[in-house]
Structure formats: structure tokens, C-alpha cells
Amino acid sequence: MNIHHKNKRLFFFFIWGITAFVVFKVLQGYLSLIFISIMYSIIVYPLYFWLTKKLHRMHRLATIITIVVSFFIIIVPLIIAGNLFINEALRFKETIAIDTETSLTSIDRYISLANDLTSKIPGLRGAIEPEQVEHVVRQAAQNLSKFLLSKAIQIGSSSVNIITNFFLFLITIYFTIPQIPHIKDKLKNLSPLDDKIDQMYIDRATAMMMSLLKGTFLIAIVQGIIGGLLLWIAGVDYILTLTIAMVILAVLPVIGTAFVTIPIGLFFLASGNIFGGAVILLGQIIIMSNIDNILRAELAARDTPLHPVLLLLSIIGGIQLFGPLGFIYGPIIMILFMTSLEIYTKHYKY
Questions:
Q1: 224 near 250, Cβ under 8 Å?
Q2: Tens digit of pLDDT for each residue in 162-196?
């Protein structure tokens, strides 16, 4: 009887392994879409739950209203920003040659000044050749313009896939949003661990995701917008492109918006634009550097403390391993690992 039971278990796990592998291959191209859909559903679920109470348990209507309202708050601004970014990238391609020639005229002047200063330093020989600097500037400008244009064309050419994935995303979140509590219960039922431990894993992973989205992303957006405003006041061109770059950099710990603002501010001061340089540098030091400390206490979740070094490594490593979504995958995997260590020391060490 035991042998017969063991054979049945082995045969079951064999079938389960084969089907799981085939399902993985079938859904492999849509795993990111599924993850984003579940993440989106978790974020908007509180709105859905509130609407179901107000609409007397009319779940379908509450789901539709949740999707529409959340789209106008989250998705529509992203679409508008993406469209503006593409237009600005195309405009950058058209004007880069003119801007390069103007910049080269200024660069020649600074090269002459640098050579005059270095010639007065004893033991320092050799001068900077303008032709070499001009070649580097031209090459960098051309490469940057080609990169922006290629990304704009790539986005436009993949519009059919974007539309298809968008409708798949809509269908997925429509059926996922009402099922969020049931999904959590399913996970706990599948796990052989105690419900308290299962709930700890779920709470930590959810809290980390919400902390990243509610805290890190919102703070990064605020920093990017303020940084863009400072650059606009100083008279910098291509504000949208630089603002998006600052939002992305503000997400990464340690690096931040200073990677954009400090070089531009110093360049303005060296060019004689004291007002523009002062606005950018003082704004970065006084305002931008303190936004994180002021807002994070109010916005970031405190339930999943993760050391900044671990957060930085998990973000960078996650992006390298999983691509753009690694920003979310990395920290969630890291917090699950740290939670496992905590559970081990409390429940399984002895």
C-alpha cells in the first residue's frame, strides 16, 4: 500500500512538473505583464474595496470604476509624458547640429584659457588640441541624437505590440482586482508553513512593493519636477528629457538628481551665467537634497526596513538580471530573503 501510494505521488509530481514547465513556456513572454497586472491590482484594491461598500456589493461596476479612475491618475499622465518625450527627442535630433556648432565656438575659447593657465605651471608640458575636443563633442552629440531617435522609432514601430499588451493588461486587471484576497488565501493554502509565517512573507513583500511605489517613486517624481523647474528658471533647454532623467536617477539610492544638476550648474558658472548656475546649485543643495528626508518619513512604509546598501545592491542587481522591472523584483527578493533569515532565527534554528 505504501509503495502504491508512493508511486502515485511520484506520478503526480511528474505530471505536475511537466505541465508546470509547459505552462511556463506558454506564459514566458507574458510573465512581466502578469506581474505588473498583479502589482497594479494590489495598488488599486483599496479603492475597489471602498467602492464595493458604497455601491452595495456591485463588484463589476466597482471594478470598472476603479480601472477608469486609476487610469486617469496613473496611466494617462505616463502616456502624455511619453508622447512629449518622443517629440522632444525628435526636436533634439533636428537641432543638435546647430547646438553643437555653437558649443564648439565656446569650447575653443575655454580651451585657449585652459592652455594659458597650464602653460604657467612649471613642469607641465603639452597643450589641449581643439581638434581632438571638437571630434569628441561631435561624436558624442551624434551618438546621443541617434540614440534618442532610435528609441523614438522603436517605440513607434512597436505600437501594435503595445496596444495588444495594453488590452491584455486591461483584461488581466479586470479579473484580478476582485480576486486579490482570494489570491492571498490560495498562496497560504498552498504553503506548508504556518499561516502566521505565510502572512509575514505576504505582508513584507506587499509592504516593500508599496514602499517602493508610494515612497521612492513619488519622491523621485517630486525631485524630478522640482529639478526640472530649477533648470527651466535657469534657462536650460530640453527640460522634459532632463526631468525624466532626474526622476530615473532619483530612484537610485546615493546617485540622485545631483548627477544632472551639479554638472549643469558648474558649467553655467564657468560660462559666466552666475544666476543660472546659482539657481541650479543652491536649489540642489537646499531643496532637492532635503526632499527625501522630509517626504520619506510621511510616505515610505516603515514595516520593511532594508539597509540602504542592500536596497542599492538589490536594485542594481535586479535591473542587471531582470531588466527594467528588476527595480521591483530585486528589492522584493531581498526582503523575502531577509525575512527568511528572521524566520529561521526565530522558528527553525533549534
A1: yes
A2: 778 888 988 999 999 999 989 888 888 888 888 88
User: What dihedral angle (degrees, nearest 10) is formed by the CA atoms of 132, 134, 139, 141?
Assistant: 150
The residue from 156, 180, 204 where one domain ends is 180
Q: In terms of Cα–Cα distance, which of 208, 219, 205 is closest to 301?
A: 208
177-195 CB burial, b ≥16 within 10 A, e <16: bbebeeebeeebeeeeeee
Total structural domains in the chain? 2
Please tell me whether residues 197 and 175 are part of one structural domain: no
Distance of alpha carbon 151 from alpha carbon 244, whole angstroms:
14
The mean pLDDT value for 293-303 works out to 55
From CA 228, how far away is CA 34, in angstroms rounded? 33
| 170 and 197 housed in the same domain | no
Residue 25 lies in a domain: no
Residue 47 buriedness (CB in 10 A; 0-12 / 13-18 / 19+): middle
pLDDT > 90? residue 18: yes
Confidence class of residue 219 from pLDDT cuts 50, 70 and 90?
Answer: confident
Burial class (CB in 10 A: 0-12, 13-18, 19+), 279: buried
Range of the domain at 298: 193-344
